[in-house]
Amino acid sequence: MGLEKVKHIVLVLSGKGGVGKSSVTTQLALSLSQAGHSVGILDVDLTGPSIPRMLSIEESKVTQVPGGWSPVPVHQKDASTGVGSLHAMSLGFLLQRRGDAVVWRGPKKTAMIRQFMRDVLWDETDYLLIDTPPGTSDEHISLAETLQSEALPTQVAGAVVVTTPQAVSTSDVRKELNFCFKTGIRVLGVIENMSGYVCPHCSECTDIFGSGGGRSMAEEFKVPFLGTVPMDAQFITLLEEGRRPQYPTGTQINGRDISSSVGAGQGGTDSDSGGDLVDKYMHCSLSLIFKDITTSLISHVSNHD
Fold first, then answer.
1. Are 238 and 284 in contact (CB under 8 A)?
2. What would the pLDDT profile of 222-233 be if each residue is shown by its tens digit?
3. DSSP 147
4. For 86-116, how does the pLDDT look when each residue is reduced to its tens digit (9 = 90+)?
5. Which runs of E-coded beta strand occur in the chain?
6. Closest by Cα among 230, 239, 299, 279 to 258
7. Where are the domains of the chain?
8. Phi and psi at residue 247, in whole multiples of 5°?
9. β-sheet bridge partners, residue 73
């Protein structure tokens, strides 16, 4: 069975599209890896697989091994730095061309998800993060049913639910929380994404979409609130161009001066493309936020054990 060496399975869910589930999944994985854990990402957003691009490994291909598929390595364990390994699996690795459309009906999606759950052979993995499509449809029902049949109850830690601050988003995400309650999936916490915008030219972080909607929703449903995450253009530049972020002195996010923590003026040149994504991410403002979120997440998972 492909999941037998996985300790904890965490779903990343949202009833709303465009809230940044894949971004949150990627940063949770990088943060967990920085903390020394071995991590896997399973991308089951079959019609919009974005994890290969987020991890800058779009050209990679899956390796067939006896009994199934071997996930694609993003980086290996580094004992000298304490960084854990990171591997990923996505339908994006199986497409002939990046722009190929996946035009599938529900039964074929269901079969693909079951194949991913059974035939991807994960090595020793502390956390397997499952990046899901928006909504509560075929993929989610198939995923819940397959986890019930293929994984041990102790392996399924629960779900992280992602929203943005606006009411139009939280109203849809409420449906996802209700889905979790109906299917017996424990909610590990809510993350409010896109809560503010970090200007790359000054020290301002502005709440362009408002803030507080995610926290209010978490309190309403009596589930943990893991934190707020602003939009940072330099994180996008890191993913798209491979440049290490740098911030003006005095940049504050969530009341914290992050420029001194990640290093103001370090990196960020056009030619600075060397090194692994996990190394460069340590220079990103969002790495500090996700370090706190990850600590809370690990605590909630441990309480489940």
1. yes
2. 999 999 999 998
3. H
4. 999 999 998 877 677 787 888 898 899 999 9
5. 6-13, 39-43, 63-65, 68-70, 72-75, 86-90, 125-131, 156-163, 187-198, 205-206, 225-232, 252-253, 256-257
6. 230
7. 6-199+209-233+286-304
8. -130, 145
9. 87
Residue 2 and residue 122 in contact, taking contact as beta carbons nearer than 8 Å: yes
User: What's the count of helices (H) and strands (E) in the chain, helices before strands?
Assistant: 10, 13
Integer Cα distance of 88 and 47 in angstroms? 17
What crossing angle do the helices spanning 138-150 and 167-183 adopt, rounded to 10°? 30
Per-residue b or e along 156-180, where b marks 16 or more CB atoms closer than 10 Å to that residue's CB = bbbbbbbbbbeeebbebbbebbebb
Dig out the tokens for 271 from the structure.
Answer: 């030619």
The answer to whether the beta carbons of residues 267 and 280 sit under 8 Å apart is: yes
At the topology level, CATH places domain 6-199+209-233+286-304 in: Rossmann fold (3.40.50)
Residue 40, strand partner residues: 87, 128
- Given a contact cutoff of 8 angstroms between Cβ atoms, the answer to whether 285 and 234 are in contact is yes
> What is the CB-side half-sphere exposure of residue 41 using CA atoms within 13 A?
38
